[in-house]
Target: Enoyl-CoA hydratase/isomerase family protein
Amino acid sequence: MIETDPGGDGVLEITLNRPAARNALTSPGLEALASAVETADERDDVTVIGLRGGGEAFCAGADLDAVADLDRESGNAFARLGQRVARTIESSETPVVAAIDGPAMGGGLELALACDLRVATPRSTFGEPGVTFGLFGAWGGTVRLPRIVGEGTALDLALSGRTIDAETALDVGLISRIVTDPESVATEVAGNPTETVAVLADRIRDRDELTSQERREATAFGECVERHRDDLRALREE
Model:
């Protein structure tokens, strides 16, 4: 499900490789992603991590088949796991570039938000559709989305569940570039001195501690899972 490829030139590619499910993530997949990022941090030959999706999507987020079997307690734990993975990406000593080609939805968008750079192809789309079936992005999305695009745009995306295209994402600051080959940006960054790249990323993304906000987010997610569990199971059967 998670593949790593030392592409050379200081770039290590991590691929979410479950294309039949649009790279939706289960708990084992999340654990594997965190492990891949942590392992990359330990390598002296890696300057930049490129995070990409296999197939036609970047990532559809959480696997709804798995979410449909959660209750309040396990929903809280699943949210906390996703938050931990996002924090692993965000706190990586190695800068992470989200190389987005295709849909980045829900938890997939939230993982991208945790990356240092987000670049996308023209066909990429973005959204937080969870509200349409009674949930919301709980992998740190309610914390990072308003920080990156502003509270007004974050509320618009989260409360409407609408999908935006790459041009709109660029306009609101969700991504920094639209490119034909998003992985080339990771190579561009890796061409600079490794130590300077790492120090710059660390200084620019230095923020206050977010643990208490994430704890409240996970609690609310668990409550939503409990409330809409029957609806989610019905959705799985469609």
